[in-house]
Specification:
This protein has 220 residues and is of the alpha/beta class. The protein contains twelve helices and seven strands.
Length: 220
């Protein structure tokens, strides 16, 4: 145990989701941008690209961003003049930092090692690395497009645990989607189902770290 009765932070791992936890975004806003290049409505575009093979293949790293653009453009019957560079700007720059979760990230980093674990694409990851605190504070990034598996596949959490070299019981996962929290819990990982403006994220993280400390000291 470290001085002051606190457990060594190196024994604990806290993993944060990216979209709608650390950074807020609205898929319909992306589709409204795409609608400028298509005769389809934003809602129709959403039905053609999200929760489809297009989204799955892009987030699992099956093809690069240029092929992603080609597939989206074809799916929404996009204007021939729609350029890749426009697509990148419209698709990538849709996030805003969620200040309450970013404060929790900083708080967590004082008590544990911190990872970001998320289903995301290469282009969406670019925005993250343009935000200094998100680009520098976490120790590691487990992105679905890099590791080739997506939540709720348990393998994505196993990759994180193996990389950190810690026990699942020493891990906490934060996500805005309850099914992903449940998938992490099935592996023995504690979770926080985050709801913006409702969840006391700092308080919940603090309670978990305090409760985990005796276990960490015993080595379980």
């Amino acid at each position: 145990m470290a001085s002051g009765g606190q457990v060594n932070r190196e024994t604990l791992l806290i993993m944060f989701d990216y979209g709608n936890v650390l950074a807020l975004h609205d898929r319909l806003e992306i589709c409204q941008r795409f609608a400028k290049h298509s005769r389809c409505s934003a809602h129709e575009i959403a039905s053609r690209i999200f929760n489809t093979e297009i989204e799955y293949d892009s987030e699992s790293g099956r093809y690069d961003s240029h092929e992603h653009f080609r597939r989206v453009k074809a799916a929404v019957e996009g204007d021939e003049r729609w350029a890749y560079e426009e697509f990148v700007d419209e698709y990538k720059n849709v996030f805003t930092l969620n200040e309450e979760a970013v404060r929790a990230l900083s708080y967590a980093a004082q008590r544990a090692r911190v990872y970001i674990l998320s289903n995301t694409t290469y282009l969406h990851s670019l925005w993250l690395f343009e935000q200094e605190i998100l680009a520098t504070l976490p120790e590691s990034y487990i992105f679905s497009f890099k590791v080739g598996v997506m939540k709720p596949d348990p393998e994505i959490w196993r990759i994180a645990i193996d990389r950190a070299g810690v026990s699942p019981r020493m891990c906490l996962y934060v996500d805005d989607l309850q099914p992903y929290c449940a998938a992490a819990e099935a592996l023995g990982i504690a979770s926080i189902h985050y709801r913006r403006g409702v969840t006391d994220l700092l308080g919940e993280i603090g309670k978990w770290a305090e409760a985990a400390a005796p276990t960490a000291v015993r080595g379980f």
